[in-house]
Design goal:
- It is a single chain.
- Helix 5 (177-187) links the parallel strand 8 (167-171) and strand 9.
- The radius of gyration is 21 Å and the shape is globular.
- The protein folds into two domains: 8-150 and 294-314, Rossmann fold, CATH 3.40.50; 153-291, 3-Layer(aba) Sandwich (Rossmann fold).
- By secondary structure, the chain is α/β, with parallel strands linked by helices.
- It has helices at 17-27, 67-83, 112-123, 152-159, 177-187, 229-240, 259-265, 294-305, and strands at residues 8-12, 34-38, 44-48, 56-60, 88-93, 127-131, 146-149, 167-171, 191-197, 206-210, 217-225, 245-253, 270-274, 288-291.
- A seven-stranded mixed sheet has the order 10-9-8-11-12-13-14, sandwiched between helices. Strands 1-4-5-6-7 form a five-stranded parallel sheet, sandwiched between helices. Strands 2-3 form a two-stranded antiparallel ribbon.
């Protein structure tokens, strides 16, 4: 617990105030006073209610839906702290939006992950604390230090009690192979991969399973679940190939569009998510479980404040 008096200030935007309050609680603080509202024309209005001169300021704001509004709140809060002479400003972004366009997949595409990184840096942030970027190389898009936390340890710790000789880790697509491999190594389990192929345009995807899942308890691992198409199609493929039980876990619960209906109707027995994005009551299902990342972020903030190495936060 931090015991350095008022040298640290933690502010929260509107994207995930419950998570921010929980982080502050673990640190032994109350959230600092801030007004984040709107002018009559919709422009974001911010006022810091406490002095930040010379302080170590942490601004907690996920850039989840409404993405543009939450991003603008973050930028304006950073600018307000900078202009109020904050000693150091850390943007705590549990979920970093605009991360999926991290390269030019086609000609004339933007690289929005780099664009947003530049904007956050230009607004006055001195460093960024985030979790499970869509691609690890996005850390290099920032010209300021980035502390990249991993949600995997929280997820595989939860599933340790379910592991037996029938348990297998599954990557729901080729892009998640590295993430699934790490979890498989930690749980000492075999691994399988769902291979999606679309033989022709506008044809239904053909799902192939690389590995033997018949009679197995399968855990699909991903970084985010957006429309849930990939994870639910993967669950269907596992079911058709004889899987006994199907679990799923992910760090970021984006859950847009038809996601909830797809998950409800899927063969997934249980889905475990982290609270980097708030999950409203209308999106909660009995098969969903949410694990908080607040303690992990609190430890990370403490280590940043005390200039301690970040690897220590995973020791317990």
């Amino acid at each position: 617990m931090i015991t350095h008096g008022n040298e640290i200030k933690i502010f929260a935007g509107n994207s995930n105030p419950a998570l921010a309050a929980s982080i502050a609680h673990h640190l032994g603080f109350e959230l600092s006073e801030i007004e984040v509202g709107h002018f009559s024309d919709g422009e974001t209005a911010v006022h810091l209610g406490e002095t930040v001169r010379g302080r170590d300021v942490f601004i907690v704001q996920s850039t989840c839906a409404p993405v543009n509004e939450n991003l603008m709140e973050l930028l304006i809060m950073i600018d307000a702290a900078r202009r109020a002479s904050a000693g150091r400003i850390t943007a705590v972004i549990p979920y970093f939006g605009y991360a999926r366009q991290d390269r030019k997949a086609r000609s004339r595409d933007p690289i929005t992950a780099k664009l947003v990184a530049d904007i956050i840096t230009s607004s006055g942030a001195d460093r960024v604390l985030t979790m499970d970027l869509h691609a690890a190389q996005i850390q290099g898009f920032f010209d300021i230090p980035v502390d990249h936390l991993l949600g995997g340890p929280l997820l595989y710790k939860y599933f340790q009690k379910k592991v037996d000789e029938d348990f297998i880790i599954v990557s729901p697509d080729i892009g998640s192979v590295s993430r699934a491999r790490n979890v498989a190594a930690k749980l000492n389990c075999p691994m399988a991969i769902v291979d999606k192929r679309r033989p022709k345009a506008n044809q239904i995807e053909v799902m192939n399973i690389i590995g033997d899942v018949r009679g197995k308890k399968c855990l699909m691992v991903d970084d985010m679940i957006d429309t849930a198409g990939t994870i639910c199609q993967g669950a269907e493929a596992l079911y058709q190939n004889g899987a006994k039980e199907i679990y799923a876990c992910a760090t970021h619960a984006v859950l847009s569009g038809p996601a909830i209906d797809r998950i409800r109707e899927s063969h997934i027995t249980e889905m475990v998510l982290l609270d980097t994005i708030p999950l409203p009551e209308e999106k909660k299902l009995d098969k969903m479980k949410v694990i908080s990342v607040s303690k992990l972020f609190a430890k990370a903030i403490e280590n940043i404040y005390l200039d301690k190495q970040m690897s220590e936060i995973y020791d317990d």
